[in-house]
Amino acid sequence: MQILSFDTATDVSTACITVDSHAVAESAVRGRSTSAQHVLEQIDELLGRCGLEPRELDLIVAGRGPGTFTGLRIGLATARGLGFALGVQVRGVSTLDALLAPDGVDVACIDARRGEVFAAGAGIEPCAIDPAALAARLAPGARVAGDGAIRYREALAGLDVPADDSPLHVPAARHHASLYETAGPPEPIYLRAPDADRSLAGKEGAAA
User: Are 81 and 174 in a shared domain?
Assistant: First the structure.
């Protein structure tokens, strides 16, 4: 099976071509709030590197978030558009599940901004939570990975946060492909209201 997988929910856009469960080409593009804009370039480059035509793909798997609203919407819209154009099934995998896939990661932790993280893992149902509150719920030495763990390293004192340059902090698209059998629909996971909705609600409340 030839799978295209990618994730644009964080500030690192990742993409991968997997053939018969083996990752044959991968890429990662960093850029706060801009990495998702390059996902089509990544896909084109990876397909060319593998010598594959888009219509040879059997499945597309996209990251469902949670993460940045704009990046997440770009990625899922891209996945749906490609799937429709190519006649290929599209599935979605939680970005938190992808971070939890490597051996040894206990809790996935994505920067949710506004002083919170999106987290899931050992004893933690997917949620948006204050980093200090997350640390209080975890056993000492628990390994926490993701860009939220990097940003709030001090608040997560007593936990095992890998070095900033560790690949464990990146939701590598190879993990999305490995989870395709349990993947869900390509629908976004927000875990809290998008900033635009909160702003609109605030304006409506002030006008009432």
Answer: yes
List the structure tokens of 26: 């991968």
In sequence order, what are the residues at sequence separation of 6 or more whose Cβ sits closer than 8 angstroms to the Cβ of residue 141?
Answer: 158, 159, 160
- The helix/strand count (H/E) of the chain reads as 7, 9
Q: Answer whether residue 207 is part of any domain.
A: no
Find all residues with CB under 8 Å of 121, minimum gap 6, and list them.
96, 100, 105, 106, 107, 108, 144
pTM given for the model: 0.90
The domain that holds 20 is classified in CATH as 3.30.420.40
- Cis amide prior to 66 (ω within 30 degrees): yes
Note the pLDDT tens digit of each residue in 133-164: 999 999 999 999 999 999 999 999 999 999 99
Whether the Cβ atoms of residue 29 and residue 21 lie closer than 8 Å to each other: no
Shared-domain flag, residues 71 and 128: no
- Under 8 Å between Cβ of 61 and 91: yes
Which of helix, strand or coil describes residue 206? helix
**Structural domain boundaries enclosing 138:** 97-151
Number of folded domains in the chain? 2
